[in-house]
Amino acid sequence: MAASINDVPPLAKYLASSDKKTRDKAVKNLAVFLSNKSENAAIPELEMGKLWKGIFYCFWMSDKPLVQQALATELADLLLAISDTPSSLHFLRGFWVTIVREWNGIDRLRMDKYYMLVRRFVNASFRLLLRAEWDEPACTEYSDILTHTGGPLCPSDNRVPASLAFHIGDVYLDELDKVLSDTPTSPCPLSTLLSPFFTLAAGTPAKLTFKHTQETVFEPILAALQGSSSNSAGPMRKRPRLESTYQHILDNSCISDPKSGQVDQSKLRTTILRRIFDVASEEGTRDSNRRKMYALFKAAKADEDGEDSESDT
């Protein structure tokens, strides 16, 4: 049953209070409220916006590194306090809409702690999807949250700050690898989880955004999937970032359907390369990005073919 406006407690003003004890109590009360499925069935958009603005400024006023770290973790864990996955994703959408809207107003002294908050929410999002056993509708909704208008990886929304999209690219694979460090009950659908970056790469008009996506997401995962061949000096291995192995991702991934079971690295790499080629071939892909994606595909294939030739000699 959908929650009415009257069902939502007036927590926003307490979350944004200048008094730390009041804010702390409000966060605890929020966790209790969200964990009550009947109350949180569907928070109205207007109330969700007010709630997230209060949460944003609750974090804004946190000081001292240990306090900030603890609060960032507590806020991200609110996603897991909600037992119903669709409701959790609805709450997550509110987070990203608020972050995109407020990001440019964050001053230099506070930026690092908001980078940390974003990292915590990326991690919690993967834990949420893992809890849902990588349910396909949940993964699809997650991708839509990131890439739809108002989302942090939306390629056509001029309001999205480049630094926010860059940071998500920086931490995305790292946080997925952490979540998979405790062997999950079902493998993660790697190709599906990379979908937001395929959307971003296809549609972004910004050269730097495409370059950053290629260097922090596509190239590292392709290099990791190639395994021991990453010691050679091919075009895919110019940056220190590519030394990351993402071993937990490699050991616990499938292509798109967890029920099909884990697949080997070679098949995963082939699938992701094919996805890059297919996205580049789509009619809606920007011409400049199409050429770059084809170039990435060709470089990765040449790298792979060169490795095969070496192994045959």
Secondary structure topology:
Elements (H helix, E strand, L loop, with lengths): L11 H4 L4 H16 L9 H16 L4 H12 L1 H4 L3 H18 L5 H24 L4 H12 L14 H18 L8 E2 H4 L1 H9 L3 H20 L20 H5 L1 E2 L10 H17 L5 H26 L1
Parallel strand pairs: 1-2
Helix pairs in contact: 3-6, 4-7, 6-7, 6-8, 7-9, 8-11, 9-12, 11-12, 12-14, 12-15, 14-15
What would you say this structure looks like, in words?
The chain is an all-alpha fold. It has one domain. 65% of the residues lie in helices and 1% in strands. The chain has 15 helices and 2 strands. It has helices at 12-15, 20-35, 45-60, 65-76, 78-81, 85-102, 108-131, 136-147, 162-179, 190-193, 195-203, 207-226, 247-251, 265-281, 287-312, and strands at 188-189, 253-254. The protein has a two-stranded parallel sheet. Helix 7 (108-131) packs across helix 9. Mean pLDDT is 89; it is low at 228-235. This is Nop52-domain-containing protein. It comes from Athelia psychrophila. InterPro entries: RRP1 (IPR010301). Its main location: nucleus. It is found in: Nucleus.
